[in-house]
Amino acid sequence: MSLSSEPFPREGGVLYAEGVPLSVIADAVGTPCYIYSANTIRARYQRLEQAFAGVPHHIHFAMKANSSLSILRLLQEMGAGVDIVSGGELFRAHEAGFGGNDIVFSGVGKTVREIEQALDQRVLLINVESEAELVTIDAVAGARGVVAPIAIRVNPEVTVETPHEYIKTGEKGQKFGIPRDDVERIAALAMALPHVALKGLGMHLGSQIANAEPMREALPRLLDVVTQVRAQGHVIEYLDVGGGLAVPYAPGEPLADVDDYAALIIAATRDWGVQLLLEPGRFIVADAGTLVTRVLYRKHAAGKDFVVTDAGMNDLVRPALYQAYHDIEPVRDTDGAITVDVVGPICESGDFYAKDRVLADVHAGDLLAVRTTGAYGYTMASNYNSRPRPAEVLVEGTRFAVVTERERYEDLVRLERAHLQWRSA
Ligand code: LLP
Q: Among candidates 281, 290, 247, 286, which has minimal Cα distance to 394?
């Protein structure tokens, strides 16, 4: 078959990942499994890279969206950095070959141990989210005899439209960032502390933001803060505009216009003498991934039809947690249509992938592709109901590789102790 620019093209009635039929992978690796298109990830990264080509910038992939080492390596080879939010992500980033300079450390609750690790690895910036954290970073850096490079994460307090409450972050009253009215005072404190150097300001407005309005509103507020803190004598080199670019999940939804997004940010910031930092997660990986699951049963109960799959909310939690919509397609073309709930095997009524969805008339044994699951899919998977987490597979052209083995039952109890070693109080 000819290689299409679609990550998951349908040819001759079957769904492919690039040049590999999904059924070939499912038969070889089992289901459920996540399948990623390497060339799509590269294309999304390049798309964003090109949009910002005219100005100094660096893309720091938000690895919470997908932290598979294979995908991190692929992005690292393309010149990306990462945005991390934990010591575990720092460890993964290091394993994937990222150097300290490629790393910005975000997150509202960094531990002393994590701050130590970040300083030891000489990360580019630690994004400070509170006064107390600033003081802690100064103390930790002081104890190590170093100066911590920091940025303040500003909460610009703009109104943000996102599909779900839980993925807003840049509004008033959120736990994230330092309210813009408090930044001047906290920057003055940073100036007085000997072991921090304030080099940047940042924000992250939320995730799955489909229009430019919040960014248009927030940028001048962030730049006002740049003026304030420069007046205090801080040398602000970096401006971190966060992530949040939307991708379409349902048919007909638009892909965020990257050129508009870039043009808006570039126009607002180009005369400010800053390097832009971007923290996209979803945009780079979401549509490059599909979760493949096998239909276990059809079921008719209380006037409803159900398709029971071998994947559940432990494998992909987004529908249960955010009522998120994911397209579901049969891997092999199937005649007829049915209106069904697509549900998993887990003992929770929240364990569904779709409700009252018109779907191809699939039967036990058929494969389904749950689309746009490359972001916040595997990284949010759990072992609930003692289910081993699925395998992850990377496809490139006509070849594929297992990049994460399916967990085994032994893995489920690996950290548990049958013979207890009691300790005295
Ligand atoms: N930077 C920071 C500081 C963030 O908190 C996030 C996402 C990002 C960047 C990347 O945002 P993105 O470009 O991926 O929208 N689990 C939810 C999404 C939570 C996003 C949390 N923060 C979901 O499945 O929709």
A: 290
Alpha carbon of 148 to ligand 1 centroid (Å) = 25
pLDDT at 214: 92
Q: Residue 100 has what pLDDT?
A: 97
Render pLDDT for 248-258 as a digit per residue (tens, 0 to 9). 999 878 777 89
Whole-number Å distance, alpha carbon 168 to ligand 1 midpoint, is: 9
Q: How does pLDDT run across 318-342, given as a tens digit for each residue? A: 999 999 999 999 999 999 999 999 9
Q: Is 347 considered catalytic here?
A: yes
Residue 218: closest CA among 180, 271, 166, 256: 180
Closest atom of ligand 1 relative to the 375 alpha carbon: 24
Catalytic residue (one of 301, 347, 420, 425): 347
Identity of the residue numbered 322: Y
Same fold, 10-37+286-412 and 106-280: no
Say if residues 319 and 313 touch (Cβ distance below 8 Å).
yes
pLDDT reported for residue 2:
46
Pocket test for ligand 1, best of 59, 64, 323, 370 (most atoms within 8 A of CB): 64
Low-confidence ranges of the chain (pLDDT < 70): 1-4, 167
Q: Which atom of ligand 1 is nearest to the CA of 321?
A: 24
Cα(56) to centroid(ligand 1), Å: 23
Domain range list for the chain: 10-37+286-412, 106-280
- Give helix 258-269 / helix 213-231 axis angle, nearest 10°: 20
Q: How far is the CA of 251 from the centre of ligand 1 (A)?
A: 22
Query: What are 61-116's pLDDT values in tens digits?
Result: 999 999 999 999 999 999 999 999 999 999 999 999 999 999 999 999 999 999 99
Would you say the C-alpha torsion 374, 73, 200, 117 has a positive or negative sign? positive
Question: What are the b/e assignments for 280-316, b being 16+ CB within 10 Å?
Answer: bbbbbbbbbbbbbbbbbebeeeeeeeebbbbbbbbbb
The CATH H-level (homologous superfamily) assignment of domain 106-280 is Alanine racemase (3.20.20.10)
CA of 207, closest atom in ligand 1: 15
- Give the per-residue pLDDT at 291: 99
Q: Determine the pLDDT at residue 71.
A: 98
User: What is the whole-number distance in angstroms between the Cα of residue 405 and the centre of ligand 1?
Assistant: 26
Q: Which residues line ligand 1 (CB under 6 A)?
A: 62, 65, 83, 106, 167, 204, 207-208, 242-245, 279-283, 318, 322, 375-376
Check: CATH 2.60.40.1180 for 10-37+286-412? Answer: no
* Residue identifier of the C-alpha nearest atom 5 of ligand 1: 204
